[in-house]
Each structure stands twice: as C-alpha cells, then as structure tokens.
Amino acid sequence: MTQPQLAHQTEYGRMYARSLSGVPEVPSITTVIAQQNTDLSGWVGHMAATAVIEDPRLTQAVGSRPQLKTVAKQASNAAERFRDDAAARGDRVHNYAEQVGLRALGRPHEMARMREVLAEHGEAAYADRFDEWWDLFDVRPLATELTVWNGTVGYAGTLDLVASIGGRTCIVDYKTKGTSRDGRVKPLDAKVVMQLVAGLKAEESLVDPVSGTWEPWQYGDAPVLLGVALGQTEVVAHQANPQVLPDHWRKFWALRQVWGYSQTADAAGPALRPLGPPPPTPREQPGPQGEGGAPATTAKVGA
C-alpha cells in the first residue's frame, strides 16, 4: 500500500487524519524527517552532466547552439526523473513485500500479481532476493502496513512490518536500494533509525479507518528495530543500535518542533515588514545664552 488510507498530501507535506471522514491533523513521520536540510546540489549537477554525456544526440549537437540548448534543457531535470523512477520502483517492491506478508498472515493477497508487475519492469530479481531473505530469516509477520499515531508529540506513520524474527519482536522498515559497482546492495541512510524509533514511540495503532477506531500500541517495547535494504543482488538487514536510539528520538522530536514552527510562522504572516521613516518631531528652541555661550541664569532674590 503506497498511499496509506488516512494519509493526505497537503501544502505542509503528507499528513494523517484520524478516520476516512476526518481532516488531516498531524504530519507523517517522513514529513517530519524531511525538515532536516539535505544539500543535493552536487548530486543534481552530477545527474544533469551525466545525462548530457550519455545523450545520443550530443555528437550531432556539437557546434549547433539550438541543439545543445535542447540537450541541456532535457538534462536539467535528470535528477527529478531519476527520483520519480526510483520512487515508482520502490512502490512496486514495497507492494510485493506487503503481499508476501498478507499471504503469511492468511489474509487476501495479490502476491502473484505484484510479482508479475515487477517482472514487467525487469525487476523480478527484487522479488527473488526478498523471498530468499524472508525464508532465511524465518519472518513471521504480526502486522503489515500498520498505521500508528503519537498524539503527545503529534505525528503518525505507517510501518512496513511488525514481525517475530528469531523469537524477538521486530519493527521493520524496507528501503529499496540500487546496486553498487561491486554488485552489492547500496547502504542505508542513517535517517532510517529516526523513522524506526518514531514508530517504536507510537501510542496508538489503527483498527478501523472507516470508524476511526484505534487501540493502544502493542509493540512499544519491541527489542529490535530493523532497516532492510532490498536490492536486486541481495537483501541486507541492519539493526538500529540501541545505544543511539535516545539521540535519534531527540532529533526527531526537534524536527517535529521545526515543522510546527513553520505552520505557526506562516499563519502569523511575513516575518519581516517594510518600515518607513518616523514622522518629524518638533525641535527644541535654544534659550538665552550667557557669557561664553553658557545658558543665562536668573539671579535669586537676596543673593
């Protein structure tokens, strides 16, 4: 499920409602994490330059300013195209992983259809490697695509998987990754730890989106948080270091305050307003001067 039922895209990022008939109330976990500034200018420039170099029209365009401008214009959004393609691939892989979990839970699923979709895009290897990892780790799902809510801090999100692995309860987040030059799946970003600990700190989980029924969060004491890199050549699971969880939770809390501040700041209007010069004020008139330019004094009676 790439778009959770209670999630809404808003001008403030993805937000969650309490029911299908409710209005968005709190930001999603990923929206909060996105408040952390990430400089991608170098990567964007690299993608644009690579697109120019690999453009088959480049040889013919050399010497022609209009043709070179056309090549450059189409290369300028190479990063956006790459991002959108990666997001669509991630959705397809996540959909397959969700269906595998539903099948294991004995619930209706479309696992075969999702595998076909991957195959249609030349991505069947993702499903093969995922199946191998699932069997090797003997994953026993407890819940899949579970929406959770924290009313104290004010956020919500949807967890990819809660499962028993090796007899221990695990909160799992999948990340679809590309393949490095040495054939290994690319490493995870450490930000996944914030995402996992935010899920761990939930207070409620969704029971029924139609009626907006929630229940107390059952897995707040899960001992293992796993970020799982899903690749075409391998799947690699990484456990969040328990010693760093408090720091990542504090960082997530701070980013939530940043998100909240941006909403109140926007509502209050612009932070700076133009200011003109003050109105002129009457100047004091000089009094009579004594000798040497000093103010004259009045003699006292009897002096």
UniProtKB/TrEMBL annotation:
It comes from the Bacteria. Residues 275-285 have a biased composition (Pro residues). Residues 267-303 are annotated as: Disordered. Residues 286-303 have a biased composition (Low complexity). This is Cytochrome.
